[in-house]
Amino acid sequence: MLKLLKYEWKACARACLPLYGAIILVALINHLLYSEAVPELLFGIPAAIMSMLYVVIFAAVFVATAVILVQRFYKSLLGGEGYLMFTLPVSVTQHIFSKAIIAVAMCFLSCLVAFLSILLLSHGINPATFSFFDPAAVPYVLEGLLWLVLCAFAAVLFIYLCIALGHLAKKHRLLMAFVWYFVLSTAVQIIGMLVLMAGGNAVSESMARSIGQFWASMGSGAVHFVVLILCLVSAAAAAVCFAGTRYILTHKLNLE
């Protein structure tokens, strides 16, 4: 498993790390160009060009991460490399998890780099910015991070499931993966709206008042309870997507 993670990290890092370095460098140059009288240099043309370059690279960071996420799974397990990957002494579960873990890590790394570039572009990195620390907020921050990680895994595994379903088609498999993504995501949204509407209609005025009093009595525990529910829902969604992907790769795989 560790060797799979190492191999996957190297493959993704080769494409993404240069972009991460580029966006930090361009953000730093923009910060210098927009300081004091520098924006007036050559009628502001260099500053305008670097600003447009920053926007382009900023978008490219997230687009490249998404493309690599899809490409690494499709080519490694369902493309030409699949013959080699499935001869390794590792299980399908390990293959899926190794790619999902690195994909989630790259997503968070992309967000972190984008955030740092914004700090550089606006104020520069000031240690005082991170000096504020409230110990009481630590549980909420940790729970929020856990929920974000589970959401990221659910999103990545959902994409993997759509790619695997698209691979079941005889022709235009990648196109069918996009079709499955559109169909399933639309279905999930519709089902979610119906559940919310049904729940709202089923709750009477007196029941709503009782629920409000219950939440008020829980105090800060209400927040923990809501985050716990969100984590369970995200984990369940990730588990369903993983199970579907694993079943297809185990029983329906066709590399021809």
Automatic annotation (TrEMBL):
Keyword Transmembrane: yes
Domain of life: Bacteria
Transmembrane segments: 12-33, 45-70, 100-125, 145-166, 178-202, 222-249
UniProt entry keywords in alphabetical sequence: Membrane, Transmembrane, Transmembrane helix
Record's protein name: ABC transporter permease
The species this protein was found in: Agathobaculum hominis
